Each structure stands twice: as structure tokens, then as C-alpha cells.
């Protein structure tokens, strides 16, 4: 696929601005559209599937020291922010010991997940792995979010969005799917965004 070989607008912009991945602009668009990080306060945020670290770096820059960020991934980060308010935990979100540590660092006003399983190219397999991950993210989000908090989760588009959105609507004031412009045109990923968590 030639499109993947040639750096696109977003990849070049990310490089120029010091981010290891272009995915940062998806988060930027979601946060702006849904007003997820309003000025003021001292929010606690959780970034799931954080490596190589663009979302975490963007959040830390946005927080500018006023708030704290916890991040988790099975892989190492490609960034090393010298930030006292940043905690990175290496491990799987599916591992109960890791979930327990993330719970201890909460509650969070915002949980974002760009976590995605490594793809096989088989859409059905990829979709089902993504759903397992998203169910796990959602379960953790419901445990660690503070009342009024927001949840953002990546999911591969398939048959499950409607069911997940319905489930989210039962626990949040609003929930919907949103595909940022920075998503690659041929990608079948989208994001579920739920705001106004009801404890
Ligand atoms: C698309 S990348 C995230 C990019 C990141 N948001 C950034 O801006 O740099 C997806 C990440 O999900 C992570 N991931 C996949 N399964 C995971 C799991 N079970 N627990 C934690 N992280 C996981 C992968 O290791 C990968 O780093």
C-alpha cells in the first residue's frame, strides 16, 4: 500500500512538533470537539496503550504541570518526559495486577485509550481482538473514572459499536462514535467517546 510508505501531512507535522506518532492529532481533535480538557483544575488522566507516547506527551504539554497523568502499555515508551506528575506502567491492561496499580493511581477525570492489538490483516480476527481489548478498557474505565468523567476508546469498526454505545449510554450522559480527520482514510478504526460518567 503506497499510502503507508509515503509520510503524509500528519506524519510530517508530528515529526516537526516532536511527537513520535501522527496519532496525536486524533486525540487533539477529539479533545477539542468534546471539550475534554477544559482549562483550570488539576485533572488526573489515564492513557491506555500509550506507546510510543504521542498522546502522553501531548497531554503533559497541555497540563503544563497542573494535573497528573498515568500511562500504560505492553511496550516501552519512545519518550522520557521529565515530569514529576507522570507515571508509566509497563504491562497489559488485561493483567489484573496492572489494573490494580492503575486503580490505585485514580480516580481519573479522563481515560483515553488508543490501545490496539497488533493486526493480522484478517479483519474478523483483528476486530474480535480489538473488541476484547475495548471491553477490558471499558470495564476499567467504569471502575476508575470519577463522577462526571469522560472515556475515549479506539475500536475497529464492525458490528459492535452500537452495542458498546448502548452500554456506554447506560453509564454516561452522552456516548457516540467519532472518527477524527487525522485517521487514515483507509483505516477502519473509530473512537467511542462517552462524557458525563454516572457513578
Ligand atoms: C496505536 S498504538 C498507540 C499510540 C499512542 N496513542 C501514541 O500516540 O503514541 C497502540 C498501542 O496499544 C498497545 N497495546 C496493545 N494491547 C495492549 C494491552 N493489552 N495493554 C496495554 N497496551 C496495549 C500497543 O502496545 C501499542 O503501543
Description:
With 199 residues, this protein is α/β, with parallel strands linked by helices. The protein has a domain at 43-120 and 127-143 and 150-179 and 188-197: Rossmann fold. Helices cover 37% and strands 25% of the residues. The chain has helices at residues 2-5, 9-16, 24-34, 54-63, 96-105, 123-144, 161-169; strands at residues 44-48, 68-73, 86-90, 108-113, 145-156, 172-178, 189-197. A 7-stranded mixed beta sheet has the order 3-2-1-4-5-7-6, with helices on both faces. The N and C termini lie far apart (45 Å). The model has no long low-confidence stretch (mean pLDDT 91). The structure holds S-adenosylmethionine.
Summarize the structure.
Helix content is 37%, strand content 25%. With 199 residues, it is of the alpha/beta class.
Radius of gyration: 16 Å
CATH topology of the domain at 43-120 and 127-143 and 150-179 and 188-197: Rossmann fold
User: In CATH, what is the class of the domain at 43-120 and 127-143 and 150-179 and 188-197?
Assistant: Alpha Beta
Looking across the biggest beta sheet, what order are the strands in?
A: 3-2-1-4-5-7-6
Instruction: Name the shape in a single word.
Output: globular
CATH superfamily of the domain at 43-120 and 127-143 and 150-179 and 188-197: Vaccinia Virus protein VP39
Biggest beta sheet summary: 7 strands, mixed
Bin the strand percentage: 25-35%
User: What is the succession of H and E elements?
Assistant: HHHEHEEHEHEHEE
Cofactors, ions and other ligands in the entry? S-adenosylmethionine
Number of helical elements = 7
Q: Indicate the CATH architecture of the domain at 43-120 and 127-143 and 150-179 and 188-197.
A: 3-Layer(aba) Sandwich
Helix content: 25-40%
Tell me the span between the first and last alpha carbons.
Answer: 45 Å
User: Class by helix and strand content?
Assistant: alpha/beta
Number of strands: 7
Amino acid at each position: 500500500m503506497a499510502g503507508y510508505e509515503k509520510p503524509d501531512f500528519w506524519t510530517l507535522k508530528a515529526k516537526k512538533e516532536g511527537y513520535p506518532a501522527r496519532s496525536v492529532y486524533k486525540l487533539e481533535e477529539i479533545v477539542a470537539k468534546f471539550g475534554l480538557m477544559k482549562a483550570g483544575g488539576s485533572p488526573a488522566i489515564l492513557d491506555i496503550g500509550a506507546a510510543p507516547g504521542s498522546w502522553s506527551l501531548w497531554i503533559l504539554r497541555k497540563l503544563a504541570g497542573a494535573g497528573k497523568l498515568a500511562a500504560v502499555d505492553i511496550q516501552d515508551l519512545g519518550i522520557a518526559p521529565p515530569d514529576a506528575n507522570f507515571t508509566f506502567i509497563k504491562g497489559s491492561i488485561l493483567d489484573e495486577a496492572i489494573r490494580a496499580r492503575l486503580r490505585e493511581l485514580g480516580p481519573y477525570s479522563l481515560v483515553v485509550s488508543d490501545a490496539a492489538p497488533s493486526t493480522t490483516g484478517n479483519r474478523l480476527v483483528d476486530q474480535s481482538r480489538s473488541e476484547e481489548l475495548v471491553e477490558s478498557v471499558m470495564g476499567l474505565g467504569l471502575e476508575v473514572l470519577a463522577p462526571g468523567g469522560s472515556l475515549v476508546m479506539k475500536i475497529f469498526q464492525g458490528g459492535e459499536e452500537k452495542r458498546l454505545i448502548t452500554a456506554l449510554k447506560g453509564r454516561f450522559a452522552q456516548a457516540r462514535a467519532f472518527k477524527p480527520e487525522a485517521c487514515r482514510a483507509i483505516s477502519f478504526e473509530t473512537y467511542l467517546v462517552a462524557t458525563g460518567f454516572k457513578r
